[in-house]
Design goal:
Layout: E1 6-12, E2 18-25, H1 32-42, E3 46-53, E4 58-64, H2 72-80, E5 85-92, E6 98-105, E7 107-108, E8 111-112, H3 118-121, H4 127-148, H5 158-161, E9 166-172, E10 175-181, H6 187-201, E11 206-214, E12 217-224
Antiparallel strand pairs: 1-6, 2-4, 2-5, 3-4, 7-8, 9-10, 10-12, 11-12
Helix pairs in contact: 4-6
Length: 225
């Protein structure tokens, strides 16, 4: 959930009442954003930032209640009256919070993550680092297994969310070709990608085979039983 994300947007919350809303929808249709914006405007609440994840039917709003004559609860109750809104969650941000759209330290699967530049370790690959990547792959594989109960080649895009490279997945029958591309990909960094994939696929009845690097892309063949 976004509540566990450190937000950043050149906006200081010190001395202000900044509230983060997660609005879950029961349906997606035209006019939803306008209707929600009207509720905040009618109550004298300034929307600092808003984003709409249509895939998950979720709207994320950061709002400034400092000059509002209405309470947070009043606004939440008004939002809940819409038939297209399934649930509303809100959280008052700490006074020292910053809200910046261009810089954020996100969580992954509701856990805080540590961001590390690739060049810090790409030329220092060792067994410990390979083991860490394999563990990350296994953890993500467990997430997918819990969601679908089986191997889903399309979900290998989660590798891209881990920051390991741009992912392309093509499946034909029981064979999936995964291409992981990044600028100046070398053999050492490709070992990290393969370790992650080994951890991920180890939970499923599949066979993984690295097929080398071409044009800064590592190609991997995955065969299901």
């Amino acid at each position: 959930m976004m509540f566990h994300r450190e937000l950043a947007m050149i906006y200081e919350a010190n001395g202000k009442t900044i509230v983060e809303f997660i609005i879950r929808l029961s349906e997606d249709r035209p006019g939803i954003l306008a209707a929600i914006s009207d509720v905040f405007a009618e109550n004298g609440v300034n929307i600092v930032n808003a984003s709409f994840n249509r895939l998950q039917k979720m709207i994320h709003v950061v709002a400034d209640f400092t000059n509002s004559v209405s309470s947070i609860g009043d606004v939440e109750n008004m939002l809940r009256k819409f038939s297209f809104i399934y649930d509303v969650m809100e959280k008052v941000l700490n006074n020292d919070s910053y809200v910046m759209a261009t810089l954020s330290i996100p969580t992954f699967n509701n856990n805080y993550v540590l961001a590390i530049d690739h060049d810090v370790f790409e030329n220092q690959v060792n067994e410990l680092l390979l083991g860490i990547l394999k563990s990350l792959g296994k953890k993500d594989g467990e997430l997918i297994l819990g969601m679908y109960g089986s191997f889903k080649a399309s979900e290998l895009s989660i590798l891209q969310l881990r920051g390991l490279g741009r992912v392309q997945v093509q499946s034909t029958g029981n064979v999936t070709i995964v291409k992981v591309c990044r600028e100046n990909l070398n053999e050492e960094f490709s070992k990290l990608i393969l370790s992650y994939l080994e951890g991920f696929t180890g939970l499923f009845n599949v066979k993984i085979q690295g097929q080398g690097i071409s044009e800064s892309c590592l190609q991997v063949k995955i065969t299901t039983a």
